[in-house]
Design goal:
The protein is mainly α and about 150 residues long. The radius of gyration is 16 Å and the shape is globular. The mean pLDDT is about 85.
């Protein structure tokens, strides 16, 4: 599991000329969904659900996962800072991309734990990914404006 916390950084590092960081991370995530990659919680069986549950129940595992996730986000921020120059904004962008990706994976785990199959979860994963990464891409300006 720890090796996948650097997936977003890998997507950005390997992106095509003219491809934004958001597009690269979204594309990679959707490719992993299509391939039912275990790292995005879409593998048959109960393994992803059990693994996520174990991490939440055991403090040492939760701390280890948190530190590995932070390492992946820092790696992504370094790459973005190298391209964009502004380290603070690169850190905000990296945290936002990582949070969107993590929220999508957590949603997969939640739905699998509720009894859905990987195929059911994957059926609308592209739509959820477009919404999540769209929020990162477009910012929070119009999100949750109080009436």
């Amino acid at each position: 599991m720890e090796e996948h916390f650097g997936d977003a950084a890998r997507a950005v590092r390997e992106r095509q000329p003219g491809e934004s960081a958001v597009d690269a991370v979204r594309r990679q995530f959707l490719e992993m969904v299509a391939g039912r990659d275990p790292s995005v919680g879409l593998t048959p069986g109960r393994s992803p659900v059990r693994c996520a549950r174990s991490c939440r129940r055991h403090r040492v595992l939760m701390e280890r996962a948190f530190l590995a996730a932070q390492k992946g986000t820092r790696e992504l921020a370094e790459l973005l800072a190298g391209d964009a120059g502004d380290r603070m904004l690169a850190t905000v962008a990296a945290a936002s991309l990582s949070a969107a990706r993590d929220a999508l994976i957590e949603e997969h785990h939640r739905r699998l734990a509720a009894g859905e199959t990987p195929e059911q979860v994957a059926a609308d994963a592209a739509e959820r990914a477009r919404a999540a990464f769209g929020l990162v891409e477009n910012g929070l300006k119009d999100y949750a404006v109080r009436a």
